[in-house]
Structure formats: C-alpha cells, structure tokens
Predict the 3D structure of the following.
Amino acid sequence: MISIGDDGVLNKEVSQSLSDVWIDRDLSWLDFNDRVLAEAIDERTPLLERAKFLAIYTANLDEFFMKRVAVLRKGYTPERTRLIATLREKLLSSLERQADCFKNKLLPGLAAHGIHLRRWDDLTHAQQEEARAYFDSEISPALTPLVFDPAHPFPFLSNLSTSLAFLLRDEDKEAVTYARVKVPSGLKQWVALQAGVPHGQRVFAPLHEVIRGNVQKLYGGMTLTGPTLFRVTRDAEFEIEEDGEAGLREVVQEQVRKRRYEPVVRLEFTPGADPTIREMLRERFDLSPADIYDLPGELDYTSLFQISSLPLPSLKDTQWTPLTPAAIESTHDIFAAIRSGDILVHHPYESFEDSVEHFIATASKDPHTVAVKMTAYRIGDDTPFVKSLVKAAESGKQVACVIEIKARFDEERNLHWAEELERVGAHVTFGVQGLKTHAKLALVVRQEPSGLRSYVHIGTGNYHVRTARLYVDFGLFTCDPKLTRDVVNLFHYLTGRSHAPNCSELLVAPSTMRRRFLELVGREIQNRRNNLPARIVAKMNQLEDPELIQALCDAAQAGVPVDLIVRGLCCLRPGVPQRTENLRVRSIIGRFLEHSRVFHFAAGQEDPINGEFYIGSADWMYRNLSKRVEVVTPVFAREGKEKLWGVLDIFLRDRRQAWLLNENGTYSQLHPNEGVSGVEATGTHAALMEQALRRAQ
C-alpha cells in the first residue's frame, strides 16, 4: 500500500513516483478557500450573501490554522519551512483581496442599500452618546479589564479570542504597564444604533470599536495609548491516545480540557498596532515573524454572519424550502414506501425533515419496531434524533447509538448526547478502538407478518438538521436484504467486538473499501483495453489518497475518460502529458456546500444508467480509507441510478458555478457562453432546485 504520513506529507518514494502529478494538499486547500472568497468578490452574488462568504472564508481559514498549520509547525524541516513560507506568501495575497472586497465593494454596496457599518470616529455625536449609554448597560458588565505587570500575571488568551491592548500609564507612579480587555464573543459583534438614523436606514458599529471609545471608563485616572486590536489562534490538532486502561470518555474529556491551553500558532493584528505591544506578544508566545499576520483590513470577518442574517430578502439568495420526496409524500406509511422500492433522497432539494427525521421519529413511535440503531458523528445541539431515540428506549425498544466522541470540536456535544441516551437505557458505544466512526447509517428492525424485516438509511452526510439545509447530500432508504444484512452485521461489529465483517455488497473502510475501489478502477482499465465502454465519474469533497491517485493516473494513461468533481483540496494534477491527459477535475462552489460522495463506473455498459453507482461517507483521502469506519453502498434501483446520473450530468455541464483545475495546478472559473440557457447559465444549484420543483408539480 502506498502510504502517507499523519501530517499529510508523502514519503520520498511515493513523492518521486507521483511528483509530476502531485499538488501539495495545503496549497490546494488555500486554492479552495480562494474559490470561496471569489463568491464574495463576484458581483453576481447577492450582497448579503457576499458578506456571508467573507465570513466563511475567515472561518475556514481559522480551522486551517488550528488543524493544518499547527501540524506543519511540529518538527520543522527545511521542506516544511519552505512550504510554510509559500503558504504565507499565497495567503497574504488572498487577505489583501478579502480586505479590498470588504472596503471597496461590500461597504459601499451596503451603504447604497441603507446599511452603514461605521467606526467610532465616524459616528455622529448623538450616535456616540447612544453607544456610550449602551456600553454602560449592555457591555461594561460583561467586561473584565486586566493589566499585566510584576504584580499581575499574564492573562489567559483563549483560542480565537479578540482583545484590545493598550499601554497604560499611571501618572502618579510614572509607571507604564500593559492593559487588556477581551472583546466578549457572546455579545453581538455589531451594535445597532438609531440616533438620527432616517427611516429605512440602519447604522452599526463594531463592538470592539464601542469598547475602544469607552475604554477610559474601565481604567479611571489612567492614561491609555497605543490601542492595539489583536487575535490569537491556538493549536487544536491533537491525537487521542486510546491506551485501553483509562476509559475513552475520560481521555476525551481531558484532551478537550487541555486543548484550551495548546500553543498559540498565529497572532493577527489590525493596522496601527503598537510595535511595543506587538513584540511583547510575539515573544510571550514564542512565535516567529512568519506567525504574525498584520492584516490589511478587519481582524475577524466572521462577525459578518450577523450582518448577513439581516431580514432583507432582496439582498439574499431566493429562499428555498426543501420538498417532500414524492415516494414518501404519496403514502403516510414510510415503511410501505420503502417496501415499494428503494428511495434515493437528495438534500436540501428534498426535505431532510420529511425523510430522514421522519424515518427515525416514526420508528420510535411504531408499535411494530423492535430495534433502532444509528451512527452519530456530528448531530448538532437541538437534535430531534436523540429525542426520537430517547422516546424509542422509553417505550421498550432496543436502541443502540454509535457516537463518535472524537469528532473534532464536537467532542463535548457528543458526550452530552451519549449521557442523555444512557440515562434512558439506550446502548451507547464509541465505535472501534483506534478508528473514528464516520459512516452514516440508521437501521430500523420491525416485526412484520412475514417475520423480522430490516430497513436502513445509508447517507453521505451527517444526521444534523441545520447543516442538512445547507449541505448537498444523498441518502438511500432500502429494505433490500442484500444491503440490510450487511448493515446488521456492521452494527454488530461496531457495538460488540469482532473482526470487521465480510460485507457482500457494502464497501467498508478500512477493511475492504480501498481494495474494492482499486478493483473498480482496474476493471475500467481492462474494459478499455478490451474495447468495451469505460468511464469513471467520481464526486467527493477531497482527493488525496496516493494509491487511488496512482490508479486514476493508470486509468487515464490507458485511455479511460475520468471526470472528477472535487469541491475542496485535490492533490491530482490533470492534463499532464502521457499521465493524466484523459482526466479532468472541476469544483462546484455556490449557495449550498457540495458534500455528497458519488462514484460511477461504466462497467462495460454503453448506457451510463446500466453502469454501477455508489454513494457513501468516504472521500478518497488516506485518513478516510485507512483510519475511519466508512460505508459506501451500491445503488441498484434504476430510478436511483437515473437520478444520480442526471445530477452528475448537471455538474459536468455547469458553466456558472464550476471551476476547472488546470495542468499548472491553478483553477479557472468557467463562464456561460453568450446566449446559452439552462444549467450552463444558471448553475448547478439553481438547476437542481428547478428540477425538484418540476418533479413536485
């Protein structure tokens, strides 16, 4: 097996064999985030959606520093040092574009629609007075003014916290020290003001600016100079060691507690930062100059999520309400609908609430249901699934939930839901030691006149009601014994202790999935050599696994047409002579986040519908195929195949939301040809919404 390090860096042997087609994963990820930023810059994007994309760009970048840059900083080598320098150079250019978009595009655009974002010094006298009163009643009680000097310890700075720092002088003592006020993240980051604001207009001031304008109230009699707004980012990448002695629950709780105190990996400053404060903080956190980012504009654009949520429909994407899947809407009995034939649902075009939520909620109340089992990776805060599982357990049904408590940033939330389920007698397990359970599975077992019958849902996305409205995912409902038998055995493996089951139909990582995908690619190569129809179309979030990349190169060299639809990072360079000339890579970015994983192989068939289709939870990443429990299922029903091929065809024809990866490793945004209509002009998401409406009618 071709291997890859835990840091995502290829070993030297593999690096040499793939060097001509390999793109560094971190540079490719920055390209992905640049495509997100392009949505904010693109004037075709509605104004408040542009604000949202500026916020998403920063949120993505924060996670990148917490996870990836933190890993690269551990154990410096000359190669890593050069990579970090390249990443920084690329990033600085993007940050300039983000700041320019905010200052020269978004602010004037918002002002033209009566939304004014103003700094303290730009407020009228009346607005400043209003802000002072608001500070006294709604902000000051939440603040903790601090100083740090020989008599006061250096304050703890939490991850992603924003702070105001000053040089503080006590004229009586002729002493200079440092002062710091944390900007509370729990308060609204934009303060709405009304004094002198005409009807239909809105004025907002940043919270940190209101604090700065009133900070003298916190340090009475002191002289404050050198106001410096800064933000810290800490390492959030840690491996949980399952030593088998301490309980996993306790280990995770301890690691989450320790994460608060992980090393700082980035310091950000706004223009005008005091050099004394800047250098003091750099030395305090033992950072190199390369870890310091003097931003050209705002410090934290995630505050724009508040602005983007303003109730102004004319400045947003047209509201979309997911539709009830026709196969489910036609009957009040979801189990009867599934018995009539497999049902493939496509979110958010089709309702997650009326299909997946309905499936589990119905089972929890159904007197014929004897068991309900689910996996849970990210399920959110106010999840209806836990409520349904609790109801099922309280009514005497057997309930089992495999909760992944090592899901990064969701550990505490998942531990909470585990305790809630255990409290009512549900069986809660944390999966297989050493592996994360990322599979999306739900199993309902019913007592029917013919005996026990199993119904399953196999998905590409999380059982998370909020993200289901924004993320594009597929889910398959089936009671086909070929598939349900595999799911039953897989749950036995996840809740008990045994070797991974030999599933007859499902592709399961880390036991069989990689081998089966390699076999499927290999079969396309052999079909091409035998002059049979051959083609590969694969859609995923990220592509990085070296062994599958090598197989795709072999397929392209053999003349197999390969189309890859990869939203995020892609380590495979297309169009390289005699290597990947028959391979194309595109990325779809837009109002919804493309999250589904779909795989099509021609399998010697001229009609693509007669080929083979698979959906599931796994990207072609080394971690997914080797270090996680993942499930990919074949789709057998012709109706489901037609639906999948129709969606893939739309992806491949899109010239509105699509970006093409070039031979030189850069991406180019496609543009509709003049006079065209349909998906080429409107893009994937608009086309699929229109298609869903037509089906409903």
User: Anything to note?
Assistant: The chain has a mean pLDDT of 94. Residues 240 and 420 are 23 Å apart (CA to CA).
